[in-house]
Design brief:
CATH topology of the largest domain: Rossmann fold
Radius of gyration: 28 Å
Strand order of the largest sheet: 8-7-6-9-10-11-12-13-14
Number of helices: 6
Number of domains: 2
Helix content: 25-40%
Strand content: 25-35%
Largest sheet: 9 strands, mixed
CATH superfamily of the largest domain: Cell division protein FtsQ/DivIB
CATH architecture of the largest domain: 3-Layer(aba) Sandwich
Number of strands: 14
Distance between the termini: 105 Å
Structural class: alpha/beta
């Protein structure tokens, strides 16, 4: 028999033995795991927000009968546990597994709101970093930008404000989408984030920024050319002395291309 043929046969036998060993080992592990008694839950929650905690997770699972201390692994339905926790409006993703010593490990990633909306009817909800709506929590309020005024859209669970297939015909959705893009832009700009107290939509549908300092309004108009508008504002505010110079103005209009139009206060 040729040497090359012998080598091939040895390779085939080696792989066959390895496959058989793994099959037996996995069967042994599965058999042992099926008999594991789950005695405790460890919940890892990833996020700076505090919409949900370990106590609430345990309460949800025990209420739905999905986890009882002493339950056998074979009776534990991990997919159902994950799907149940995903129904929590502030939860983005869930992963579960059971250790050999009987601990149920649950890893939760919370959704991250970037903008709180107060619409024209006075109702409030969040828009998260993925453009989806979130309801507010009675027990936790994150520090995010606020938008109010003539905002038409009401809250819809898991509704996305991002247009699909370039469909820009829905006026209410487009308004939310513009506010979402503006909030994203402000959050990434350290100067604008430090300056902005809230975003306001006027009755005419124009977008204004209300600053944390002084009492003037910054009128953006719409969200077009935001980089240029923010740069012009930064240049203007660096040019006039603070605080005396800033107190002279009532409005700062940025909606005109390559220029800033200011309105001074009366009697100043």
């Amino acid at each position: 028999m040729k040497k090359s043929v012998k080598i091939k046969i040895l390779h085939i036998l080696s792989w066959t033995m390895l496959a058989a060993f793994l099959a037996v080992t996995m069967g042994f592990v599965k058999g042992n795991r099926d008999n594991v008694t789950c005695t405790s839950i460890l919940v890892n929650i990833s996020s700076e927000n505090q919409f949900i905690d370990e106590t609430e997770v345990k309460t949800i699972l025990e209420k739905d009968g999905l986890f009882i201390p002493g339950i056998l692994y074979d009776s534990l339905h991990l997919n159902e546990i994950e799907n149940t926790l995903l129904k929590h409006n502030q939860v983005k993703s869930v992963e579960t597994f059971v250790t050999l010593d009987g601990r149920l490990i649950i890893s939760i990633t919370q959704r991250k709101p970037i903008l709180r909306i107060f619409n024209e009817a006075g109702n409030s909800y969040y828009i998260d970093e993925d453009g989806r709506l979130m309801f507010t929590s009675p027990s936790y309020t994150p520090r995010v930008l606020v938008a109010n005024g003539n905002i038409m859209e009401s809250y819809k669970p898991y509704y996305s404000c991002i247009p699909e297939s370039n469909d820009f015909s829905d006026i209410k959705k487009m308004q939310l989408y513009e506010l979402y893009l503006l909030a994203e832009k402000i959050e990434k700009d350290s100067f604008m984030y430090a300056l902005t107290d809230q975003i306001h939509v006027t009755q005419r549908g124009e977008i204004e920024i209300i600053p944390k300092i002084s009492d003037w309004n910054i009128i953006l108009g719409d969200i077009s050319d935001l980089d240029n508008k923010f740069a012009n504002l930064r240049t203007f505010l660096n040019y006039i002395p603070y605080p005396d110079g800033w107190e002279k103005y009532n409005t700062i209009k940025l909606q005109f291309k390559n220029q800033i139009v200011c309105t001074k206060k009366v009697n100043i």
